[in-house]
């Protein structure tokens, strides 16, 4: 047993390598929008702690944050560390009660080696529970898992026998959302951008069907696979595809606006939505969704996801890129769309 | 006291004057889209009854029903009686138990003098309760009142202090919706098409403000009147105005798609919606709505509306046109928008 203490003397790391925003994208994001810099780590002040970042996310939402106008959070400024989810471990602390040494957390770490935790972080940082790997914590047991879990169970609420369509079906969120809907008894139809992705979600994950939007006519395929209409559309991409799906929405259908990947990586104005009238005619609902509003369900969601995984009922996949300096090209690759599952960067190569 | 009987011999009216669809509108609806005809009334069959129609509605939804593709119901065929809500009294019956002589009903009567009730009407016809005038029954205690009541209380659910915006604010549904939201403690901002309408809803009905969309910049006016954003948009018009409002939707805001008046009376393709991203970013909701899904609340809604009216808490206004043959020009006038409150035709001049 050790005596209680209010501060800990540790060997502080001296420098912090960061990827910062060098310029805003003009059209598709390119690696020269980013620069790497190394800065000194300041001494911790009362109540602060230092997180050594192990993995950072390569998430579509980053593309929104580096736009001039930002999205639901303020835009990342030029010269500022690129905002991103991440996971790491406390390596120095002035408040052992609040931020114990060695404790792992998921947080908006940004693309950097170290992140100073303030006494009151907002949005709150989340301790990683005993026995959960860092990679799992930031993927299917983190933001990705929460998004799929809460988006499906608390917003979309598919009922047994209903038809559930999910876009970006092979993405981290998409592949989990489809699997959770399947557990709820829905008929699940994926939409993805390659035959390889479609084969994966049907053959490995048990989706009922998958439409390759690059080679197939989505509208007629939806009609074939969902002759009674679409009860739930879990939308990760927005744009023209949303318009196509709205045309076939069922009475009392639900569209969960989880992401609009198709509009993130471009300066082209948003594709207009012509089929909104079907939302009214069919008394359907379209709803924006962000896990920020659902933190209260975190513990329960964790427990259920772990239970499902241990029972072999859900599968997931990580695509891990080595080295913080590869974060920019991983983001470029994200929008090219040739990955399966959740794309992350392991900070130390 | 009279003995029970299974059928009643009455003096049946012989002929029925009807307004039928002569051709579909090409652009704005015009009176020559309609024709008047007089047909013989067939003998009633077992279980049928004959309703003498007293008032018929001049409703925006009629414009959707006479389009080639219809809307949430099948389109009215060429030569068919124009579908419309209405109210009347049973003047002949073969089932005194089910359709008693003298009983008033609201129903989809169509634009005609008489309507045969089948043994099983679907959608169901609604008896008018004792003590309620026929005009009230088809307006603020009928479809119009139910739409406003259920759309506000069961779908939009404004909370005290929230900002509630309603378009077509001087229409039958709009003026009631705003007043009900006001009773719920919301700040109510109307949008209407003339200074006269705006003055009416503010001075007479107690709205907090009203924007004349024909002469004012709606976006900047909304910003001025709703600096914290719009919590509820009760949308009766759709189109470009919806897009303007979406730009200023609040976090967790609700858009109730009650009608898209602006798109009814035209063949011009729907105005695209560019600001959908705000729905996602602000975790807001947009929902189609139709009272067909809420019949269970009819009795309660009636009771509450009557209570509010008797207490002087809500006001309403009818604009009554005399004579069935004026139904077509009343519909044209509806889309010109120079009426206040609910527009109806009294069948017998």
Secondary structure layout plus pairing:
The structure is a homodimer of 349-residue chains.
Chain A: E1 15-21, E2 34-40, E3 49-57, H1 60-65, E4 86-93, E5 104-107, E6 114-117, E7 126-127, H2 134-138, H3 143-156, E8 163-167, H4 172-183, E9 187-192, H5 195-204, E10 209-212, H6 218-225, E11 230-235, H7 239-246, E12 249-257, H8 261-264, H9 276-281, E13 285-288, H10 298-310, E14 318-322, H11 327-336, E15 342-346
Parallel strand pairs in A: 8-9, 8-11, 9-10, 11-12, 12-13, 14-15
Antiparallel strand pairs in A: 1-2, 3-4, 3-6, 3-15, 4-5, 5-7
Helix pairs in contact in A: 3-4, 3-10
Short description:
Two copies of one chain form a homodimer. Chain A is an alpha/beta fold and 349 residues long.
The number of helical runs of chain A is: 11
CATH topology of the largest domain in chain A: Quinone Oxidoreductase, Chain A, domain 1
CATH superfamily of the largest domain in chain A: Medium-chain alcohol dehydrogenases, catalytic domain
Mean pLDDT over the full residue set of chain A: 90
Helical/strand content category of chain A = alpha/beta
Portion in beta strands of chain A: 15-25%
Determine the most extensive contact between two protein chains: A-B, 31 and 31 residues
């Amino acid at each position: 047993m050790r005596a209680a203490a209010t501060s800990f003397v540790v060997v502080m790391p001296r420098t912090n390598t960061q990827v910062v925003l060098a310029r805003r994208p003009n059209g598709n994001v390119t690696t020269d929008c980013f620069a790497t810099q190394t800065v000194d780590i300041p001494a911790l002040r009362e109540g602060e702690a230092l997180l050594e970042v192990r993995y950072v996310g390569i998430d579509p939402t980053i593309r929104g944050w580096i736009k001039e106008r930002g999205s639901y959070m303020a835009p990342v400024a030029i010269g500022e560390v690129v905002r991103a989810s991440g996971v790491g471990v406390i390596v120095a602390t002035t408040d052992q009660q609040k931020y114990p040494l060695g404790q792992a957390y998921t947080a908006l770490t940004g693309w950097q080696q170290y992140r100073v935790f303030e006494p009151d972080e907002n949005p709150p940082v989340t301790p990683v529970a005993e026995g959960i790997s860092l990679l799992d914590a930031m993927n299917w047991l983190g933001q990705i898992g929460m998004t799929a879990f809460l988006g499906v169970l608390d917003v979309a609420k598919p009922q047994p026998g209903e038809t559930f369509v999910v876009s970006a079906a092979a993405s981290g969120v998409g592949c989990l959302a489809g699997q959770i809907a399947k557990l709820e008894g829905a008929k699940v139809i994926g939409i993805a951008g390659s035959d390889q992705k479609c084969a994966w979600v049907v053959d490995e994950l048990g989706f009922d069907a998958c439409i390759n939007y690059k080679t197939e006519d989505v509208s007629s395929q939806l009609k074939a696979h969902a002759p009674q209409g679409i009860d739930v559309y879990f939308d990760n991409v927005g744009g023209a595809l949303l318009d196509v799906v709205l045309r076939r929405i069922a009475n009392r259908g639900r569209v969960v606006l989880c992401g609009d990947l198709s509009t993130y990586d471009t300066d082209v104005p948003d594709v207009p939505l012509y089929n909104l009238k079907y939302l009214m005619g069919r008394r359907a609902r379209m709803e924006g969704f962000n896990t920020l509003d659902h933190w209260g369900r975190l513990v329960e969601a964790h427990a259920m996801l772990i239970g499902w995984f241990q029972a072999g009922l859900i599968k997931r996949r990580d695509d891990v890129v080595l080295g913080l300096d590869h974060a920019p090209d991983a983001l470029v690759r994200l929008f090219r769309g040739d990955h399966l599952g959740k794309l992350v960067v392991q900070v130390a190569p």
